[in-house]
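Handoff note, outgoing to incoming analyst
You'll be picking up this chain. Sequence as last confirmed:
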Amino acid sequence: MKQTSVILSLFVFLFLLSCNTKNKQSAESTSAEPAAFQNPLPVAFGDPFILKASDGKYYMYGTDNVMDGYGVSISTDLVNWEDGGRIYRGNTPESWTVSNFWAPEVYEIDGKYYMLFSADWKHNPTNELENFRIGVAVSDSPTGPFKEMMDRPIFDPGYPVIDGNLLFEDGKVYLYYSRCCYKHPVESEISEWAKKQGWYDEIEESWIYGVEMKPDFSDIIGEPQLLLRPPVKMDDKQAEWESRSVTSHEVNRRWTEGSYIFKEGDTYYMMYSANYFGGKNYAVGYATSKSPLGPFTKADNNPVLQKNTEAGGVVTGTGHCMMFKNNDQMYCVYHGRTEATGEERLVFIDKMEILPDGKLVVHGPTTSPQSINP
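Most recent structure output, in case you need it:
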């Protein structure tokens, strides 16, 4: 009887040990599974930009309080984000800025963090309604505080500019930006069509330029080169999607803005946004070149990111994106709206890829759960 009890006890012990081992293996298997997120993320940024810093954390910057400056959201897994507070404040007595703080991008260089941003310039002798310029601020930390490097913008092209983006290559720095629509009427077949409709006397346009910049960010080198602009002719393959803000009688402007450039192989890809940033038709296309300053050719498969409401979805206003590569997987980070969020812009992240034939494809917008490997 005693022997039977011992055998039974041994059997129970082995059974429990087996269960614990299986539970541990199951837990380890579960913990190894990719984390999942769902769009839109709980981050109310327009024009989002993600930096993976040398500390291993992810820092997201974007347009939030346009009259104040910028904040940051921080994550360790690209799924859970927490508010990191204000990192830069403009519109101070010592600042060259006044308001309309848009589209910050932060770059880590030799242990310091440089923030490129757009804002209204105090120097405005002709009282322009849009007096945007691009500046740079620096910090010892990705969470700031960021301090302006100069008491002026990087340069003054003589017209309002926004949406600065940088490319670092072979010891050179290239700056890309958008000339604003403000006081920039352009004649085209689209403008003539709109005039015949009795809608608008003129159509203003924004164009994307590129220029080499001094490595210390203090000024530009040479003259800016025009890289992208809206189509002139109505039979242009890009004319339909890039003119929707005009053809829908939304506004008398056509935008080419929010550029983001990266190199894959020997090809430079420039992603850009078109249409009214505050409307449903905001969408993303791209162009390619063999040189950082062009010429760029727009892709036949544009737009690569746009509203999905006509296909039964709930997302509109998709635009001002950047490419983020993580473990060799490309991600497109952008802002958008849903029927539930209304006018508020929230951040979306979707997978993207470059196909063997060189085409860029964004797999979005999505609102269903998807995995990500940080």
